Amino acid sequence: MASNMILVVDDDELVQDLIRLYLEKEGFRVESAWDGEEALAKLRTAGPDLIILDIMLPKLDGWAVCREIRKTKTTPIIMLTAKGEEFDRVLGLELGADDYVCKPFSPIELVARIKAVLRRSALAGQTSSKILSYPGIIVDYSSHRVEVDGREVALAPKEFELLWFLASYPGRLYSREQLLKNVWDYEYLGDPRTVDTHIKRLREKLEAGAKKRYIRTVWGLGYKFEVAE
After folding, report:
1. 73 torsion bin: left (phi>0), alpha (psi -120 to 50), beta (else)
2. Which comes out higher in pLDDT, residue 89 or 43?
3. Which positions ≥6 away from 28 have C-beta within 8 Å?
4. Contact at 8 Å (CB) between 117 and 109?
5. Whole-angstrom Cα distance, residue 183 to residue 225?
6. Would the CA dihedral through 110, 158, 164, 201 be positive or negative?
7. Largest CA distance in the chain
8. How far, in Å, CA of 57 to CA of 80, rounded?
């Protein structure tokens, strides 16, 4: 972990200092950016391994920065939001963020989430070409490409990881806590509705105009991948 560099984008000096203190204690290198434009400049010059991105920023807000990053890069992004509203979470995830943390946050939880996202990113980079194919749907891990009924479906990084995991074990039921552990790679630390939000967006994208359904909810228990008419 010592070689990983984290770019912290926040205009609050206290937040910057707190995050830096905990990350450097864990052996991370830390770069700071104080507004959206500086964040994009640092992304080009510093080449961070992960970005902690506040939503409310001067010049360019976090949504605009996330959208711009995702045009060309897959650098993991954890978004910070002071509001904690579902709209903020859904929009951030839709734009391609890998995770989110609501302010005020626990620095220990933030560090755990950073490590989890970095582990998932490293594993994805090591994965050889794999393709899952079921009636009406093809999931290609090497290119992170999904086709439903011959049309390409654009998924955010975590949506793709969630689909890949479920589709790798068709018919097997997973609770929200199990999905947090296996897809997000950390034990339950907060709101399991993170899973619900991703499932909702994933289902909407996969099933829009599709002939089949792929994500089944078992009420009170969890979710599973299942091809159904």
Report:
1. beta
2. 43
3. 1, 2, 4, 5, 6, 114
4. no
5. 14
6. positive
7. 53
8. 11
Q: Are 205 and 153 in contact (CB under 8 A)?
A: yes
Pick the closest to residue 141 from 180, 114, 151, 157 (CA basis): 157
Percent of the chain whose predicted confidence (pLDDT) is above 90: 42
Cβ neighbours of residue 166 closer than 8 Å, sequence gap 6 or more: 174, 215, 223, 224, 225
Between strands 151-153 and 145-148, the pairing is antiparallel
Q: Which two tokens stand for residue 157?
A: 């990084």
Angle 25-70-161 from CA coordinates, rounded to 5°? 75
pTM, whole model, 2 decimals?
0.64
Choose among 135, 125, 112, 124: nearest CA to 187. 112
H/E segment holding residue 76: none
- pLDDT digit string, tens, across residues 102-116: 888 889 989 988 988
**What tokens appear for 35 in the block?**
């507004």
Separation of alpha carbons 114 and 186, rounded Å: 10
Rounded distance between C-alpha atoms, residue 193 and residue 128, angstroms: 31
**Residue type present at position 158:** K
Is 134 in contact with 167 (CB distance < 8 Å)? yes
**Tokens encoding 109:** 């939880």
216: closest CA among 182, 174, 168, 177? 174
Residue 187 token pair: 């034990």
| Residue 110 CB neighbours (<10 A) | 20
Structure tokens at 94: 């839709």
